[in-house]
Amino acid sequence: MHITYISSFVPRKCGIATYTRDLSVEIHKKHIPLSIIAMENVLIPYSYSAPVTKIIRQEKLDDYKKVAQQLNSDPTDIVHLQHEFGLFDGRDGQYILNFASELTKPLIVTFHTVLLTPTENQKYIIQELARLSRNVIVMDEVAKNRLENVYGLNPNDSVFILHGAPIVNIKKPDAKKAINFSDSFVLLANNLISRTKGLEFAIKAVPKAVKEIPNLKFLIVGETHPVVKKTEGESYRKELIDLVKKLHLESQVIFINKYIPLEELQTYLAAADVYITPYLDPQQITSGTLSYAIGAGKACIATEYVYAKDMLAKDRGSLIPFRDSNAIAKALIELYKNPKKLHKLEINVTKLRKNMRWSKVAEKHILLYSKILELKDPQTIVRNFLNKPIDISYLSQLTDAVGIIQHTHHIIPDRKFGYSTDDNARALIVVSQLYKQHKTDDVLKYIKLYVSFLRFAQEPNGKFHTFLNFTGNWDDKTDVTDPYGKAMWALGFNLYLNDDLRFTQSIHSLFTMNLSQIDNIRDLRTAAYTMLGLYYYILKFETKTDTATLATEYLKKLADFLMTAYKKNHTINWNWFEDTVTYDNFRLPQALFAAYMITGNEKYKKVANSTLQFITNCNYNKKRKHFDFIGQDGWYVKGQKKADYDQQPLEAAAAVDAYLFEAQAFHKRDYLKQALLAFEWFFGNNRNHRYIYDKNTRGVFDGLTLKGVNQNEGAESIVCFLISCLSLQHYLKKI
């Protein structure tokens, strides 16, 4: 694997640059090729050496797109972005979205800031980066929780990996001697200095502390942050120096005004008795300097910012209020006077640092990289999946003595929503196909159950109910709508495959009873579903029965109904049956292909082909080579922008079947590629790069949302998925 990092990088002086350097060094030790693309700030230009291969000029929008395009064609396998709003230009750093949206290689994002109260634009940037990435990394459980509760992301999409730290093993007396503070009680702060660090409050604590700690030395190590230096010069440092003079602390507070290398920093860390981060931002979710102090096994004092509260909990450090010099002095004096407590903090924090070794942190990153690369090739994943027997255990889990339960809360059947005729009809399609392959009593049991449900849903006049509540009562009046069409489809399909004459008698009577209602069909999709049922019925019985002849006439009538709708609504740029593209769209051209294969009418074939091409163009992202189905959150109204979310499994399943019917109609296997590509949508080849198929439950998530995936796994999702699985398996066996 080859990893490319997008980040600030040394010699630039900032925490993220240091973080990426330390991480990349450990990754490189594992013999993994890598490169760095450095974010360049015009105020502080640097000359870079390997592993930096390119730069992105922060303020140049074109650079972001250009570099993404270069990465798309180079040997990079994974791009790992280190995100902090201030690293990028545009409003809230939104230029980085141009990079992420142009990139086609797998992307991982580490969020170094996750705000509790973001602006709408900041929230949008985080959501979009999460959507465009395969995973996001945070270094704090609070940040992970915020991504879920503030930004609406799915918990499965974020990974918690601790901030790394070098492990310091230099003995304290030796380190103190090396920096000439052998007889001192050393309080250390190491930062690129800026006003958010709150150092003035630590300085103001020294007069009170020094009364109890006569040998106290407060070392403030680090130069002013380069960006701060460019914008306001050394004004903050001067204020701190003036404060030291005003309080007559020149002997106790020592400024070491330089950016020290890692080896020297480790010596200062080893020499410290106490480390302090008196930061002023309560929402800070990472701190490299605090992480390094923990890595050195230091007793730490910190204000109650998010990262410190998490890392120093459970007696791993002393937490103090913000802007409270008295509290700092009190905590410092307590640690000085109580060596046992100081030692206890050191022992407790040492237990944490073993998981913060850079080698350990790098291993966790490599595991994540490997996992993503395993999922990089959906074609192979899909082929391997289809070569295995279909698992209907989740379908069984949703099915009780009445039928398949409509909805779930996550994976728990939600009985208050009862049952739908649509779902039980499509479940019958699944088990009918499965029984043809494996004639087991278990599968036959489900066929009888779902047929029984359809019989219960049907009134003597052939119309169907839609929703059966859990008390056993229908919540609607009968009609000739989608449930009718899907029941016809399921019954016709079962008759096509069923060889048991005794069993077919009951199903045949159900089917023929429904025929009288075909004249009452007014909806295009109801017509399409019914046409599929008629198609399979005619294939089975052809001219053997009077009903088959009648079914052929009805099939022509419904096909003409679709043709009339097409003639009324299609234009040069709108080859469709309606002025709004809504749901289960691919079933319409599929039904016309079915009519063509029965009747031989070329007009049906021509319109089926042109509408399938149109609906493909509406639902396929050529640039990213994945299906991007029209969402049900607004659909696609002619002349307007299509809805990106909520994309539903039934769209992918319908697309699979439509392409397989096209392959049969044209006798071309090439269309199988499109069917497989549509099926890949279930396996992460989609706009969110997320699995819709749940490998753990064998269920299917209820759709693709702005947040990632809908965490519920209801009946429609699993039956549509299984229908497409079985359709593909059947076609692949034939060729």
TrEMBL record:
Pfam families: Glycos_transf_1. Gene3D superfamilies: 1.50.10.20, Glycogen Phosphorylase B (3.40.50.2000). Residues 179-349 form the Glycosyl transferase family domain. Keywords: Transferase. GO terms for molecular function: glycosyltransferase activity. One of its GO terms (biological process) is carbohydrate metabolic process. PANTHER family: BLL5144 PROTEIN (PTHR12526:SF572), GLYCOSYLTRANSFERASE (PTHR12526). This is Glycosyltransferase.
